Amino acid sequence: xxxxxxxxxxxxxxxxxxxxxxxxxxxxxxxxxxxxxxxxxxxxxxxxxxxxxxxxxxxxxxxxxxxxxxxxxxxxxxxxxxxxxxxxxxxxxxxxxxxxxxxxxxxxxxxxxxxxxxxxxxxxxxxxxxxxxxxxxxxxxxxxxxxxxxxxxxxxxxxxxxxxxxxxxxxxxxxxxxxxxxxxxxxxxxxxxxxxxxxxxxxxxxxxxxxxxxxxxxxxxxxxxxxxxxxxxxxxxxxxxxxxxxxxxxxxxxxxxxxxxxxxxxxxxxxxxxxxxxxxxxxxxxxxxxxxxxxxxxxxxxxxxxxxxxxxxxxxxxxxxxxxxxxxxxxxxxxxxxxxxxxxxxxxxxxxxxxxxxxxxxxxxxxxxxxxxxxxxxxxxxxxxxxxxxxxxxxxxxxxxxxxxxxxxxxxxxxxxxxxxxxxxxxxxxxxxxxxxxxxxxxxxxxxxxxx
Length: 452
Fold this sequence. Notes:
This protein is an alpha/beta fold. The protein folds into four domains: 85 residues, GMP Synthetase, Chain A, domain 3, CATH 3.30.300; 166 residues, P-loop containing nucleotide triphosphate hydrolases (Rossmann fold), CATH 3.40.50; 70 residues, Helicase, Ruva Protein, domain 3 (Orthogonal Bundle), CATH 1.10.8.60; 94 residues, DnaA protein, C-terminal DNA-binding domain (Chromosomal Replication Initiator Protein Dnaa, Chain: A). Helix content is 55%, strand content 9%. The strands form two sheets. A five-stranded parallel sheet has the order 5-6-7-4-8, with helices on both faces. Strands 1-2-3 form a three-stranded mixed sheet, covered by helices on one side. The relative contact order is 0.07. The N terminus and C terminus are likely disordered.
């Protein structure tokens, strides 16, 4: 392969380094890829030199991304060979730190940051606690136990803490792992008689982030080691953050002494996002992926259909956009409805109607439906009306125009204003939250979990 006249090996290597910066996290690049040096470019093979001792790890962990970046600059067919400053590295086994570096750096998803996390009433406490922990590890809440069903963002917060500390923690050592990875690593350490390096890999951490602690159940030896790791970090003031799909007291298969330690700090739960938060999540995901969605009804329809799982919400958006890209059809409400009808067919559950909501709210507040949808601005009517409109956005698939029409011919802006007022009041008025929960439970109990 020959380079163009304007691109010599040195210039090509600079372009490749730029591509690598875009392909991996900043910390991974700075620690592992920045030290690489260009040796030569000969007949379609790029030869690089790595510091002694880390060449095996770089070849194994970053070999593919190196080749992809090189081919993006130099064209298809380019090979990358990473050699070492010292020939001894070829016969040397990777150190414990090299074997475990994925726990420390590479496993952190650079897209999971606090900036990319959408705050709502259901996750406000968990977000605030996570940010406090990231800013003051070991001083704010220790341990921090994030609880939520799958797909609501607890792993996002876990990675956000790690990425924040890596960026602003002044060199603090961060380790991220899942319980499954911790277990597999522990088993390998036992079989290879390298338990001490295993212990150091975790107990030298300043911040230890552990995902899915519910999987500790029925793993007696791993649980014992986890207990000692937990104690070693906690007693020396290091930060622990754990995620779980159950509350500590519900982990009946885990030893009581561990459950007590999980409860010793702050337990913060993450609840499903409300309608406005779901739309905001979709907007942020579209922006992150540089997808232009010209019809706002697309995002609103997805947010109405997918209510309980952020991953499913984003997955629905990806599927709608993919269908648009593959078929060439306009990215509008009709296309979204076609795709979502296949994912979430109407027949799954009976729909909650606008009339159902109006009747339930009117009865709850001892009003007539005609009063509820009237033009009256009296406080005894205005708040129930706003709450009913909010429920209509949450529990039906009706458009803003259709909801406004059902509530006395109100317009799009009035409907949005009502939803905003409800969100604001729920944050400050506990009784309003209780009222909303009771009404929601009543409507779902009558018509199934949620409209399909």
